[in-house]
Amino acid sequence: MRPWALPVSLVLCGAAVAASPFRAGEPVPGAAVLLAFLPLAAVASPLVLPRSSGLAQARRRSAADGRPIVFWRPGCVYCLRLRARLGRDARRPHRVDIWRDPEGAAAVREADGGDETVPTVLADGRARTDPGPAWVRALSPRA
């Protein structure tokens, strides 16, 4: 349920803010407010990013195909920015949601000096926090 906390909160906040114009008999501003909150909730939801795997599975797959591992968490603006800047290549890396995988969170803390800073990308034994998309693309072999 934790990954859905932010999107659900955004929908509830949008509904609360939109309720006032609706009660005042002004449905257009109320609908506009609600429509502004819904895309924010969608972007913050786990539906935007590809399905995550556990760290052990991501390491096995990465060893087999050479693609990097991206550690992320739902609602992280920097994770969403990296995904958007990667474009079509965003599905290439293996993904580990640190909120769902304690082993992944521990790997991020180890790589980031005790912090759970995401996105952190692990490839070839090297970890980089909030890398540029060109660096991630260079690590992702084409299928």
UniProtKB/TrEMBL annotation:
Domain annotation Glutaredoxin: ranges? 70-126
- Highest taxon of the lineage: Bacteria
Q: Show the stretches that span the lipid bilayer.
A: 28-49
Q: Which UniProt keywords apply?
A: Membrane, Transmembrane, Transmembrane helix
Q: Which PROSITE patterns match?
A: GLUTAREDOXIN_2 (PS51354)
List the Gene3D superfamilies hit by this protein, alphabetically.
Glutaredoxin
**InterPro entries in alphabetical order:** Glutaredoxin, Thioredoxin-like_sf
Coiled coil ranges (UniProt) are none
Tell me the Pfam families matching this sequence.
Glutaredoxin
Q: What is this protein called?
A: Membrane protein
Originating species: Streptomyces daghestanicus
